[in-house]
Amino acid sequence: MSGRFAFLHSLWINTMPCCAATPPLQRLGLLAASLALVPALALAQYPGRQFPRDALRAEAVFGTPPQVTLAKQALTLSPGARVRNELNQYVPAGTLTGQKRTIHYTLDITGQLRDVWLLRAEEIANLPWPSTLEQAQTWTFNPSTQTWTRP
């Protein structure tokens, strides 16, 4: 009776029959192809960030939260302030104590820092970027390319 059912293949016992039948060179080729995709996937993880029109640029020195110094002017983080790192992940402001970083920021209606983005090198190289509200009001912003044009 066992010879009669020898042609049946049990998916419960042999769950991945395709891998067992794959020749070693073919497996090596698949491994090489998958490793070739890793750098492309790494670049796709960091798309360009979209900053709002009212985002200004400054050199910031982070003190004990909620204290931040921008261009020798002491400001505070608002109670709901969001600080994003270079990977656009939220970070606690306390982890930045004592650091000097180039940032983009927005202010709330009370003049406190509402949103803070820690900039990557390619974002810092995007010049010009306004550092005052007066500059932002007179310059022209292109949101699709994230560039400013002086008048």
Fold and architecture overview:
- The chain has 151 residues and is of the alpha+beta class.
- The protein has a domain at 56-149.
- Helices cover 24% and strands 28% of the residues.
- The chain has helices at 17-21, 24-44, 121-124, 133-138; strands at 56-62, 67-70, 73-84, 100-107, 113-118, 140-142, 147-149.
- The chain has a five-stranded mixed beta barrel. It has a two-stranded antiparallel sheet with strand order 6-7.
- Strand 4 and strand 5 form a beta hairpin.
| Number of DSSP strand runs | 7
Q: What is the H/E string?
A: HHEEEEEHHEE
- Report how far apart the termini are: 90 Å
Principal-axis shape? elongated
Helix content range of the residues, please? Answer: 10-25%
Read across the widest sheet, the strand sequence of neighbours is 1-2-3-5-4
Give a short account of the largest sheet.
5 strands, mixed, barrel
The averaged pLDDT comes out at 85
Task: Describe the protein's topology.
Layout: H1 17-21, H2 24-44, E1 56-62, E2 67-70, E3 73-84, E4 100-107, E5 113-118, H3 121-124, H4 133-138, E6 140-142, E7 147-149
Parallel strand pairs: 3-5
Antiparallel strand pairs: 1-2, 1-4, 2-3, 4-5, 6-7
Short description:
By secondary structure, the chain is an alpha+beta fold.
